């Protein structure tokens, strides 16, 4: 093996340079050599396994019967090999199955590039430029369709019994269904009892997001093993609090403070953003609910004349905002710091915007699932929330440790 590689490299250098990639490159030649050697070895083993005792090939036993040329696409570029044949026609190579036109390595490369956010057209151009390989968007789509089975398994995998926090958020994608329109894809991200991030799944909705829809989503999550959730953080999703009360009656539904602030800015002139944010901060950092009400009354007195919609927004959100005020600082930090789900949504938005729009929701889900794999194959991040776990167990009367038992 080493000698063969050295011979290829020496011959390449002698003929005019050491081109590594592309047509005629060293990797392409090495791949062709390795595939050819593997095919020859497989044929030798096949003939040894099918030989009849006491009979040679001259007496009618199975034997080699020439070759047939086959060009396959590999991660090193297109390679033409000579596939050996046997007289009995029973040889089925494993390294290059009979009807395959690509190696598994190339398929993995295409899936990886898709997961990194490249479109089908960009992948085709990349393979042509770097590897001298002629492919098509249809081939890329066929390759990435391999992940659909894995996506189905991922979306139905067993989950932990208890989660301190679940975040529910939406990413808008464009789907061409008669005409191009925005469709929400909902992502549920959990903080595990061990302090890891866990992406529970992705869901689409075409019939609205009422209590019935959310009850079906939460029931699915419950059926996958989630017996309890201490806090569920969301952004004013209609019907979700009612569904939570049905599925996990003891769960606290909390409005996302960051989203509440962002929604406030929608009704505010940009020149006043800093002042509005400054005057709202004492509300959500107050030591208790009464102090928060006092600070909010001051905010309303100062800003209602200019921005009554902001005051109404906070009044409507108040029932789902105030639970936040009763928690320890460590718990507040988790609820208010949405970096985990914001970075995830940012990755999803980049993956979706690179495609412009999708032919259907399945294609959109496939794209976002691949983005999830690129982020972390397990859907879990490093420990970031360990400091808050004891605070959760105290605040919720041991439900966290009981659920882990």
UniProtKB/TrEMBL annotation:
Residues 44-69 are annotated as: Disordered. Transmembrane segments: none annotated. The keyword DNA-binding applies. Keywords: DNA recombination, DNA-binding, Transposable element, Transposition. Signal peptide: none annotated. The keyword GTP-binding does not apply. It holds the Pfam family Transposase_mut. Belongs to the transposase mutator family. NCBIfam families: transpos_IS256 (NF033543). Required for the transposition of the insertion element. This is Mutator family transposase. It comes from Kitasatospora putterlickiae.
């Amino acid at each position: 093996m080493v000698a063969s590689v050295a011979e290829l490299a020496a011959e390449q250098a002698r003929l005019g340079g050491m081109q590594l990639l592309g047509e005629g490159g060293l990797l392409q030649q090495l791949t062709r050599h390795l595939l050819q050697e593997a095919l020859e070895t497989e044929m030798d083993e096949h003939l040894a396994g099918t030989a009849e005792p006491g009979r040679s090939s001259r007496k009618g036993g199975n034997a080699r019967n020439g070759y047939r040329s086959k060009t396959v696409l590999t991660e090193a570029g297109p390679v033409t090999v000579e596939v050996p044949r046997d007289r009995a026609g029973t040889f089925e190579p494993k390294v290059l199955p009979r009807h395959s036109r690509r190696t598994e390595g190339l398929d993995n490369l295409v899936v990886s590039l898709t997961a990194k956010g490249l479109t089908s057209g960009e992948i085709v151009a990349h393979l042509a430029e770097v590897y001298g390989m002629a492919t098509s968007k249809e081939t890329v789509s066929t390759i990435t369709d391999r992940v659909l089975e894995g996506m189905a398994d991922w979306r139905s995998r067993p989950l932990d019994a208890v989660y301190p926090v679940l975040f529910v958020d939406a990413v808008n994608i464009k789907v061409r269904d008669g005409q191009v329109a925005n469709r929400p894809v909902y992502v549920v991200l959990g903080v595990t009892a061990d302090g890891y991030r866990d992406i529970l799944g992705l869901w689409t909705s075409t019939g609205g997001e009422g209590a019935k829809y959310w009850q079906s989503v939460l029931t699915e999550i419950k059926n996958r093993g989630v017996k309890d959730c201490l806090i569920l953080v969301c952004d004013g999703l209609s019907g979700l609090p009612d569904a939570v009360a049905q599925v996990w009656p003891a769960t606290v539904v909390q409005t996302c403070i960051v989203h509440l602030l962002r929604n406030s800015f929608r009704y505010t002139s940009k020149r006043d953003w800093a002042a509005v944010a400054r005057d709202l901060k004492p509300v959500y950092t107050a030591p208790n609910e009464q102090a928060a009400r006092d600070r909010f009354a001051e905010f309303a007195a100062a800003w209602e004349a200019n921005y009554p919609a902001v005051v109404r927004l906070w009044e409507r959100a108040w029932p789902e905002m105030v639970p936040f005020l009763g928690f320890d600082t460590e718990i507040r930090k988790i609820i208010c710091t949405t970096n985990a789900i914001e970075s995830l949504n940012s990755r999803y938005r980049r993956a979706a915007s690179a495609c412009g729009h999708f032919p259907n929701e399945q294609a959109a889900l496939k794209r976002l699932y691949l983005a999830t794999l690129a982020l972390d194959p397990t859907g879990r991040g490093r420990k970031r929330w360990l400091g808050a776990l004891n605070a959760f167990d105290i605040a919720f009367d041991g439900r966290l440790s009981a659920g882990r038992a």
